[in-house]
Amino acid sequence: MSTQTIYLSKERLAELESDLNEMTTKGRAEIARKIGEARSHGDLKENGDYDAAKEEQGMLELRINKIQATLARARLVEPSDYPADKVYILSKVMLKNKKNNVTLEYTMVSEEEADFERNKLAVSSPVGRALMGKTVGDVASVKVPAGVTEYEILAISR
């Protein structure tokens, strides 16, 4: 198990705590109900409902353990912890792809929070690493399988 610190925004921390609470209370109670119901069907050796409920219980406990491990290593980060004139975690960055002139906007987050569909880019990703510490007007070069892509930083906000 990794002991590396996980940096989380206030929103993601609250989301994980809420998920954990839901799983440890309602989730466990529901699984216990399913196991009890399956047990009432008789012989456990050939009881598919019982096997499925136990499998579901194992998966739930695995998710609970993962969230608990994440929370144990979590450190809350606030945008005010970092300078607003450079790209850091929780920065909102507007970029222009210099190759095709497409404008992109991302929020820089930890790997735990990364979600490409919601424009949340991990600071540990190749693009994220290239952007870290840069200021407006800087160009970040990112090596990709097709060559090198350059991004110009148009704006940084919190």
Radius of gyration (Å): 22 Å
Instruction: Predict the CATH topology of the largest domain.
Output: Chitinase A, domain 3
CATH homology superfamily name of the largest domain: Transcription elongation factor, GreA/GreB, C-terminal domain
The N- and C-terminal alpha carbons lie at a distance of 33 Å
Structure summary, number of beta strands? 7
Query: What is the top-level CATH class of the largest domain?
Result: Alpha Beta
Estimated helix fraction: 25-40%
> Any idea how many domains?
2
Beta-strand percentage range? 15-25%
Q: Can you list the strand order of the major beta sheet?
A: 5-4-3-7-6
| Mean pLDDT across every amino acid position | 90
Major β-sheet profile: 5 strands, mixed
Assign the structural class, choosing from mainly alpha, mainly beta, alpha/beta, alpha+beta, or little secondary structure. alpha/beta
Uncertain ranges: none
Q: What string gives the helices and strands in order? A: EHHEEEEHEE
What would your notes on this structure say?
- Helices cover 39% and strands 25% of the residues.
- It has 158 residues and is of the alpha/beta class.
- It has two domains: 6-76, Orthogonal Bundle (Helix Hairpins); 79-157, Transcription elongation factor, GreA/GreB, C-terminal domain (Chitinase A, domain 3, Roll), CATH 3.10.50.30.
- A hairpin with a 5-residue loop joins strand 3 and strand 4.
- Helix 1 (10-39) packs antiparallel against helix 2 (48-73).
- It is elongated.
